Every structure is written in C-alpha cells, then in structure tokens.
Amino acid sequence: MTEENAARQAEKVEVGRWAPDGTFTGEELRFTGEEAGSYTDYSEARSSDDRGITYTLYRTPDARYRVHVHEWSRWQGEDSSATLHPFEERGEDGVYGREPLAYATYTEEEARRAWPELFAAVGTPNVRDLDSLDEG
User: Fold this and answer.
1) Choice among 16-20, 75-79, 99-103, 117-121 with the minimum mean pLDDT
2) Please, how many CA atoms are within 13 Å of residue 24, restricted to the half-sphere of its CB?
3) ∠ at Cα 110 (104, 113), nearest 5°?
C-alpha cells in the first residue's frame, strides 16, 4: 500500500451523546479521508483538563472537508456530545435519533468560511490580500 493510499483509509468518528455515566448513544461513522489536523478549545474550562471542545479537520480524496466536533466534559453529572459537519437533519421533527442524519462535505471555501479558527490552528490560516482591489 502506498503512503497516499494509507493516508486515505477509512476514518472513524463517533457522533451522538455520552451520558455522565459514560453510556454512548449514537453511531460510528466511517468515511475515506485523512485527518488534516485538530485543536482543543478550553475557553469554557476552569482548567485545561476538565472540559473542552475538540475540533478535527478531515480532508477527503476529492479535496473536500468534514469537521468533527467533540464537546467533552470530565465533570461529574455533565454529558458530552459529538457531531460531524456538515449535516442535514432529516424528518419533520428534527430530533436526532429519530431519523438518520444526511452527511455531506464542504468545499475548501465553505469549510474555511465556517471554521476559520480551525484552519488557522492546523497551520493553514485564511489569507486576505490587503493590497488587492476592493470587492465592491
């Protein structure tokens, strides 16, 4: 297997909810791609190990993107959750778990617009050319 093929193996992410006792109610999603990087935001935490949000950027073989967001807590009595973006809720009630979610991918432009801090954190920040002509 070449290095490129090895990097494009099936990625696995869990989406759903973890109850305070650790019970997971959700699903494991698999897709072809590679992790482009991640970072954890501890801004809501009292210390860097009690709660946070971990953002992970994935690049698919067709140069599109997905973002896994894991909001986690180690505080007693608090649950944790994870989502994969972009997604669309199905069903009229829009309640997770009743109908499966439809998962799509972002173009690079869409992903950069939706998650600029993530791209910056993984070493590929958005670039604005201040010497270019105004757009309008």
Assistant:
1) 99-103
2) 9
3) 135
CA distance 35 to 93: 33
- The size of the chain, in residues, is 136
User: Nearest 5 degrees, angle CA 28-CA 89-CA 86?
Assistant: 65
Q: Answer whether residue 130 shows pLDDT above 80.
A: yes
Please check whether residue 116 is in contact with residue 108, taking contact to mean a CB–CB distance below 8 angstroms. no
Asked if residues 55 and 84 have their Cβ atoms less than 8 Å apart, the reply is: no
CA atoms of 53 and 39, how far apart (whole Å): 8
**Bond prior to 86 in cis (omega within 30° of 0):** yes
